[in-house]
Design brief:
The protein contains 18 helices and no strands. It is mainly alpha-helical and 454 residues long. 54% of the residues are buried. It binds tryptophan (TRP).
């Protein structure tokens, strides 16, 4: 088949903007607002932020381009795309591993993502019920501990979030959701700006900014570098096929380079704003910056509880965060669902149910790792920590390296150049060297460094 005739059987975006919106919707999520601040807090702040931003710019953008490129050329599920491209380049079918490991990683990530999505859902109701009116840092922290201490409560909210996700996936109504995203994501952005405005009134804004932006390299270790890199992959949704599958619906004439830059910029700005909103409150309420996954649930309610209109504002904020999480969670399971459809001839609904049930079951491990099974650790990590470590810090970066190597070394330069539609030769050469040498070597060094070999 002629490459220009290749079409995804699952559809095509109506325009470049729809793709940018959908990919930004997949990228901006709990990773930016929940995970980025708590990892920053755990890893000592500023130096972590700096490494994160450097990783986004030097690894994230070129790898995103490579991943969209593979997706658009193969126009199929990540597994099938790699099969097609391996044939096209006359190399071994082993490259399919990118697709397999990515599809698995997406499911593993969704299993815990759904648990945190459930927290967000629960906090909409808590905020609306006025739980946080006049709340002190202590009250917010206590409320959170009681909340995650209950295995039954978390079970309920995880199940609810999973229903929301699989409902959309089964209905295939991404179209409707995209329309919602056009309004809701900008609203979330404005609310974040207002939150930053509130943080300016806490008297600790300067301290928050120093914590985030005055690099202190004494706080950096091999493992924190690995977390910063893993977080760059996680936040941009790279290394597992989400971007590949979204790329497979991209129209032929879209510029992959500028699109990737826009997505990465939007994603990073949201994460930094979240940090600027949260850390001043952390210091104002004497909370420990390294207190972990509960950080935003322990700090933001204090702001909502003490500002005028906080009741409505707080509920709205968690609703929008829920939408952001929702658009991301759909993208995590899309590779598995489309693979089931293509290979077993399942209907979309059946494929969604099967994937949903398996992911939901796995998610129970995370649900209970915060309470009943909190004492159960592997290598000193709880089930949730271990799952997060293996996916974000190992599977995504390794998937990313393989994608970079495939695009940089195996695909013909004329093909990648044509596909990327970069007219400026120097820009193309820079990209090619980044994916051939810099990205794989950098990821490798960080990985070896983290395990103490280097
Ligand atoms: N990037 C999303 C977030 O920040 C999560 C996500 C969606 C993701 N798809 C992904 C992470 C693929 C890794 C890989 O919330």
């Amino acid at each position: 088949m002629n490459i220009s005739d290749r079409q995804s059987i699952h559809g095509q975006w109506s325009s470049r903007w729809t793709f940018i919106l959908a990919a930004t919707g997949a990228a901006v999520g709990l990773g930016n607002i929940w995970k980025f601040p708590y990892l920053t807090g755990q890893n000592g702040g500023s130096a972590f932020v700096l490494i994160y931003v450097v990783c986004v710019a030097t690894l994230g953008i070129p790898l995103m381009m490579a991943e969209i490129l593979l997706g658009r050329r193969g126009r199929s599920t990540p597994i099938r795309t790699m099969q097609i491209l391996a044939e096209e380049t006359n190399t071994t079918q082993w490259w399919q591993i990118i697709g397999w490991s990515g599809t698995l990683a997406g499911m593993l990530i969704l299993s815990y993502y759904s648990v945190i999505g459930g927290w967000t859902l629960a906090y909409i109701f808590k905020s609306a019920a006025g739980t946080f009116s006049g709340a002190s840092g202590q009250l917010a922290t206590d409320t959170f501990s009681i909340f995650i201490g209950s295995g039954t409560t978390l079970f309920f909210w995880h199940t609810a979030f999973m229903f929301l996700t699989m409902g959309v996936v089964a209905g295939g109504v991404q179209g409707g959701l995209e329309k919602a995203v056009q309004i809701l994501m900008p609203t979330l952005f404005i609310l974040l700006l207002l939150m930053v405005g509130y943080s300016m009134t806490t008297g600790f804004f300067g301290k928050g900014l120093t914590f985030l932006f005055t690099p202190d390299f004494s706080k950096i270790s091999g493992t924190s570098m690995l977390s910063a890199m893993g977080q760059a992959f996680f936040s941009l949704s790279l290394g597992m096929g989400t971007i590949m599958i979204y790329g497979s619906y991209v129209p032929k004439d879209t510029s992959i380079a500028s699109t990737s830059i826009i997505i990465a910029l939007a994603d990073t700005v949201v994460a930094l704003l979240a940090g600027m909103a949260i850390f001043p409150i952390v210091f104002a309420t004497n909370l420990e910056p390294g207190s972990g996954p509960g950080l935003i649930f322990q700090t933001l309610p204090v702001a909502f509880g003490n500002m005028t209109g906080g009741l409505a504002f707080g509920s709205l904020f968690f609703i929008l965060l829920l939408v952001a999480a929702w658009t991301s969670s759909i993208s995590l399971i899309e590779p598995l669902v489309t693979w089931l459809i293509e290979n077993f001839g399942l209907t979309r609904i059946k494929a969604a149910i099967y994937s949903g049930v398996v992911t939901w079951l796995l998610g129970l491990g995370t649900v209970w790792s915060f309470n009943w099974w909190a004492g159960l650790t592997f290598f000193g990590l709880t089930f949730f920590d271990l799952l997060d470590f293996v996916t974000s810090n190992l599977m995504l970066p390794l998937g990313g390296i393989l994608i970079a190597l495939f695009a940089g070394w195996l695909m013909k330069a004329e093909n990648t150049k044509a596909e990327l539609r970069i007219t400026n030769h120097t820009t193309y050469v820079i990209w090619r060297n980044l994916v051939r040498y810099i990205a794989p070597v950098a990821v490798f060094i960080v990985l070896l460094n983290a395990v103490g070999i280097l």
